[in-house]
Amino acid sequence: MQFDEKLKQLIKSKYDRLGDLAEKFEMNYSQLSQYVNGKKVSIEFLNKIIQEFPEVDLNWLLRDDEDMVQEHSEAYKVILTNEQIVNRIEMLLKDLKKQM
Questions:
Q1: What is the largest CA-CA distance in the chain?
Q2: What domains lie within the chain, and their CATH numbers?
Q3: Is a pLDDT exceeding 50 seen at residue 67?
Q4: What are phi and psi of 30, to 5 degrees?
Q5: How far apart are CA 27 and CA 35, in angstroms?
C-alpha cells in the first residue's frame, strides 16, 4: 500500500469528510486533497499527522512495503521515535534536493 492510500485510510478512520481535517489543520482543502491524491507532503504536514494520529506509526505510514511492516503487528517494534523519523526524513529530503 502506498503512502496516499494509507493516508486516506487513516483520515477515514477519524473523519467523515476531508474538509473536516483540513479545517482542523487550518489548511486549504485543495492542498490536503493533493496530499491525499499522491502529491509529496511537507514536513509540517507530517508533524500535524503525528499530532492528530499519535497511535499511528510514522514508519508504517511512510513505507510502501506493507508485507514487511504490519500496522498492528506485535513483532514489529519501532526503534526510532516519530521525531527522530521526521528528522531523518528532513535530512533525506535535503540530500535529495541537492541531487536535483
A1: 40
A2: 3-99 (1.10.260)
A3: no
A4: -65, -35
A5: 12
